[in-house]
Amino acid sequence: MRCYDCLQEARSDTTGIGVCSRCGLATCENHARVRQVQVTRQIGMGAAYGRFPARRVVCHTCDMAETAH
Question: What is the top-level taxon of the source organism (predicted)?
């Protein structure tokens, strides 16, 4: 699997280390962003939160879109 962002930059030798959880494209260690997310589950009318955050991988483009305010 090759990193999509590296292919756009004409660098075709970069191997992807993960898949963006938002758009599904392969991403390398330079373009990947690992973010923490709080895990929740429904309990009755409310929600319970896990003790430890989970992690998810997003590409640089999706990370910029999610964090732009």
Answer: Bacteria
Strand 54-59 and strand 32-37: the pairing is: antiparallel
DSSP string, 21-64: TTT--EE-TTTEEEEEE--EEEETTEEEE-SS-EEEEEEHHHHH
By C-alpha distance, which of 66, 3, 62 is closest to 29? 3
Q: Are 25 and 35 in contact (CB under 8 A)?
A: no
Question: Tens digits of per-residue pLDDT, 3-45?
Answer: 999 999 988 788 889 999 999 999 999 999 999 988 888 888 8
Residue ranges covered by each domain of the chain: 4-67
Burial class of 7 by CB neighbour count within 10 A (0 to 12, 13 to 18, 19+): middle
